[in-house]
Design brief:
The complex is a heterodimer of chains A (357) and B (150).
Chain A (H helix, E strand, L loop, with lengths): L5 E6 L6 H15 L4 E6 L10 H8 L4 E5 L3 H10 L5 E3 L32 E6 L7 H24 L19 H4 L18 H5 L9 E2 L9 H5 L5 E3 L5 E3 L11 H5 L5 E2 L6 H4 L11 E2 L1 H4 L6 H15 L29 H7 L3
Parallel strand pairs in A: 1-2, 1-3, 3-5, 4-5
Antiparallel strand pairs in A: 6-9, 7-8
Chain B lengths: L4 E5 L2 E5 L4 E2 L4 E6 L2 E6 L1 H7 L2 E6 L6 E2 L4 E7 L2 E6 L4 E6 L1 H5 L3 H4 L8 E4 L9 H21 L2
Antiparallel strand pairs in B: 1-2, 3-4, 4-5, 5-11, 6-8, 7-10, 8-9, 10-11
The chains are: A alpha/beta (357), B alpha+beta (150).
The complex binds iron/sulfur cluster (2 copies).
One iron/sulfur cluster binds next to helix 8 of chain A.
Chain lengths: 357, 150
Amino acid sequence: MSRHRITVVLSQAQGKHPAKRALEESIVAALLMEPGLEVSVIPHLYDLGPDHTGRRFLGSVRGDMVLLSWLFPRAAFWVLDRDGIKGQWGETQLKPPADDDEEETGEPQPAKGIGSLDVPDRTIYCLDLRDFNQHQPYVDEIRRVAEEGKVRAEAKQRERAPAPIVQLGLNLRNGDTPVADALGSPNGAPGSPNGAPGFTADQLLQAPGRRWYPVIDYSRCTNCMECIDFCLFGVYGVDEHERLNVENQDNCKKGCPACSRVCPEQAIMFPDYKTPAIAGAPIGAIGNLKIDLTKLFGGAEKDALSQAVEERDRELVADGRQAVGTAVGLPKRQEHKQEKPKDDLDNLIDALDALEL
Amino acid sequence: MNKPLTFMMGKFAAVLPADRRYCRNHMWCLQSDGVLRFGFTTYAVRLMQDVYFLDWEVNPGDALALNHKVGHIETSKAMSDLFAPIAGTLVRLNAELLNDPSAINVDNHGQGWLFEMTAVSDAETLSVQEYHDFLAAGWEKTQNMLKGHM
Ligand code: SF4
Ligand code: SF4
């Protein structure tokens, strides 16, 4: 028999915001009533360092997973990917309360990025806890996702006939994660929050310090290396496949999002940054995305590039180094900018025009 | 009365009445009885769309420097901090808007006014022609900025 297991992980908000905590608690409480779910709670995903138990727990999860967090789904998904917790992108149907107009602008474009490597055959769904302030929509969506996963698993099973030895979805060879020794551990009672085998709630919830680093959306990144040229703090590098890699995450300057403004593909996210576009808001979802007009209304208009240069200079000076202005590492794409075909992002003004006032 | 000017934002015509002066932060400025009243220009409203939420961080009586942060606005399409368009003293905030900011969309040149200030000089403000030129000069950049945010 094939029982489809799905792991639900709730990543808490930073700080102790009472309304956020209340929502988190009511979701967990409601999910405990659902059969066939493993529910665990971890701190703010973005802050988890490699040694944090919550992160090791995430790494031990096999099979489909739903992650609820206070991050944009795109940001959460690629933070997981960077942490080696990979899967297929699970399309959620959870949408913030109808922003009625132009929902369809979010047509997925064919991925032009270099993508992720070694992606296992399982699906990860990321849900944004800022979309609703009640637990019900989340619970409904998780039910739907669980159902979808079951159908997918059954279809696969049929394909594979004759039926193979029952796969428990556990990778016993994976000795470097605690899951191997923790299998069947008594505190792993299914359905209890933080009932993750081998991980105690206290360990899972240990408060991490805040972190700040860029997260790459490889479905968009084209490996153009402009960010490497631009960043003068040694954050970026390339891996053994010559792919762009955020090598020294913690070299990045707290609060500085400069390189995300330089990336021509909007592939660099700072999940905790205040501007949605930089924090990983859905690309092309014009209806949901708030433009930050502060620069316009403050009387000082600056384009993204000069802002990036200014932000970088500020950090250089703070480090006791020389400001370099526009002299170093600026994109060469400026000259052929006009030739670029319009993509979703270029259509904002057109979209505004299409609206009836 | 002078004829209003029109600035074309793509296909959208933003009408700029000629009975008032303008500020670089996309507010209009109308003088009556020694106080200056400010509100959003049609250009600003067009970029923001429906106003959901308006919040002030200053109180009547506060002395404000030019570009001092005065509040925050959130709309269906955008959010922004708001800044003092000139240096002076805040006299009054439009209390009606706090209950229902929709007047900003419905009647941005009238009922949807934002606040009143007294100022030593309104030298910072622009004539309607100057504001029109300012918009024209910045339009390319503004579009790029909007795209850069998407
Ligand atoms: S600038 Fe953007 S697209 Fe280019 S390598 Fe860096 S992240 Fe990838
Ligand atoms: S934000 Fe600044 S320090 Fe951090 S990676 Fe980008 S350019 Fe480098």
